[in-house]
Amino acid sequence: MDFRPLFRVAPGARVSLAEINPNAAAVGFDAEDKAAVKSSLERYREEMESFQYRLYADGSKSLLVVLQAMDAAGKDGVIRHVFSAMNPQGTRVQAFKQPTPAEAARDFLWRAHLHAPARGEVVIFNRSHYEDVLVVRVHELVPEEIWRARYEQINQFERLLSSNGTKILKFYLHIDADEQLARFKKRLDDPNRHWKISESDYTERKFWPDYIQAFEEAIEKTSTEESPWYIIPSNQKWFRNLAISQIITETMREMNLTLPMVKVDLEAVRQHYHAAKSQAEKIKQSSL
Ligand code: AMP
Ligand code: MG
Fold first, then answer.
1. Ligand with an atom nearest the CA of residue 125
2. What are the b/e assignments for 48-87, b being 16+ CB within 10 Å?
């Protein structure tokens, strides 16, 4: 099954998250066949790795993956389980926190542009410039006319990147409020996860409907042909990882990534090699 047409938000489409089931079963997947899921994921991971190898070697295009979601929806998990397939050489994760004084002193896209991928790079935005129409809107950190103008500014920014060789994929990890609470409990129960707990988890949760509204409008206004949003049912982690890795793999396949043309005269280099080899043998012989 190709997940791309299933989860991609068409340009101009209305988005109602309440009407989208966050469970894998809703699209006909259950975890019964764990081995099959595991082997599909492994296959995508291998393909992604080889595409990224070519992207890096070629050095002319780049890939930007934006991850946005409610707290505990699994952005970190996607980075661990999906992007770990790629070589750290040529891959970067950029997290977006509360703006630093230097960031806050500039326009909201400044830091996004600063961290956008160079040619040959894959960059993952763990949160992104979208926070400036999400948390900023929900908490009224700037007046409405300011954040409202940002949808178009984001579209222009992303058009600039994509027309300069950056492929953009944006994922909204869709969980429901019950699943979030279940994950908060897991964080409480598991000492290995205590470090993830933040007081703001619960204060932000109170704004759930406001965040949903902000996400819906952001996705509606900024899902474009060249920079699409995908809404991924994410209540089940294994399905979330499977769907995202497939979408990335198929997108990279369509980028027609090839290894660069050889820059040297291979015949001449072969001769250098043979000369060096016989030289090395001579030295070995004479030291016997
Ligand atoms: P975390 O990703 O859990 O480390 O949290 C980062 C926090 O920074 C989240 O609460 C975000 O909402 C917040 N954040 C990210 N970008 C912005 C922004 N532009 N303005 C205000 N808060 C932000
Ligand atoms: Mg957090």
1. 1
2. beebbbbbbebeebbbbbbbbbbbbbbbeebbebbbebbe
Examine the pLDDT at 177 and tell me if it is beyond 80: yes
Higher per-residue confidence, 131 vs 287: 131
Indicate if ligand 1 lies below 6 Å from the C-beta of 127: yes
Report the separation in Å between the CA atom of 183 and the middle of ligand 1, taken as the mean of its atom positions. 19
Calculate how far, in angstroms, residue 188's C-alpha sits from the geometric centre of ligand 2: 14
Q: What DSSP line would sit under 116-140, residue for residue?
A: SPPTT-EEEEES-GGGGGTHHHHTT
For a pocket test of ligand 1, which of 93, 98, 207 has the largest count of ligand atoms closer than 8 A to its C-beta?
Answer: 98
Give the tens place of pLDDT for each residue, 60-102.
Answer: 999 999 999 999 999 999 999 999 999 999 999 999 999 999 9
DSSP three-state, residue 208 = helix
pLDDT of 41: 96
Q: Give distance in angstroms: CA of 134 to centre of ligand 1.
A: 10
Residue owning the nearest CA to atom 6 of ligand 1: 97
* Averaged confidence pLDDT in the chain: 97
User: Which tens digit of pLDDT belongs to each residue from 259-271?
Assistant: 999 999 999 999 9
Could you tell me the distance, in angstroms and rounded to a whole number, from the CA of residue 78 to the centre of ligand 2?
14
The answer to pTM > 0.90 is yes
Record the tokens describing residue 272, joined without a space: 């250098």
Contact 247, 170 (CB under 8 A): no
Using an 8 Å Cβ cutoff, are 250 and 2 in contact?
Answer: yes
